[in-house]
Design a protein that fits this description.
With about 150 residues, the chain is an alpha+beta fold. The chain has one domain: 3-Layer(aba) Sandwich (Aminopeptidase). It has 4 helices and 5 strands, in the order E-H-H-E-E-E-H-E-H. The chain has a 5-stranded mixed beta sheet, with helices on both faces. A hairpin with a 2-residue loop joins strand 2 and strand 3. Helix 1 crosses helix 2. About 30% of the residues are buried.
């Protein structure tokens, strides 16, 4: 694998299409078209950042992080850097790209005064659980959320 395939860069306005296409693979219940305006807003938000892996036009992964000022489960400081989403294409998994994306997010949060970084995943998503544990996260809590129509 060439070094350029492991290049991580901060996304900027204009990268919405690449971000939305990758995010659609992570969150398939949304179309890429639905996700584009969200990423346009995120890219202009001083409390958020997105990072892309690969080269322009050949992106192979992304990560979205932001600062959370409200309580984050298992943390004791504020703000907390929070990993909102991370995805690497199937063909490029197992090469450390997600860890590089995570490192970029953590560096961004650290530069904004964060001493803690957090994330979450659904209970059934064992791939995500394994990833989080492999890159140094520790489990803070498990919860089940409920809802009903009223």
């Amino acid at each position: 694998m060439s070094e350029t395939e492991h290049t991580i860069r901060r996304a900027t306005p204009g990268d919405e299409t690449a971000l939305a296409a990758l995010a659609h693979s992570l969150w398939p219940h949304h179309t890429a078209e639905e996700l584009m305006p969200d990423f346009a807003d995120i890219l202009c938000d001083a409390d958020a950042a997105c990072f892309l892996a690969g080269s322009p036009g050949q992106e192979i992964g992304f990560a979205h992080c932001q600062l959370r000022h409200d309580y984050v489960e298992g943390t004791s400081t504020s703000p907390v850097g929070y990993l909102e989403g991370i995805y690497v294409t199937d063909a490029h998994r197992g090469q450390g790209i997600a860890a590089l994306l995570l490192n970029a997010c953590q560096s961004w949060a650290r530069a904004r005064g964060c001493r803690e970084f957090a994330s979450d995943c659904e209970l059934h998503n064992t791939d995500s659980q394994h990833f989080h544990l492999s890159v140094g996260f520790e489990e803070a809590n498990r919860i089940i959320c409920f809802r009903k129509d009223i």
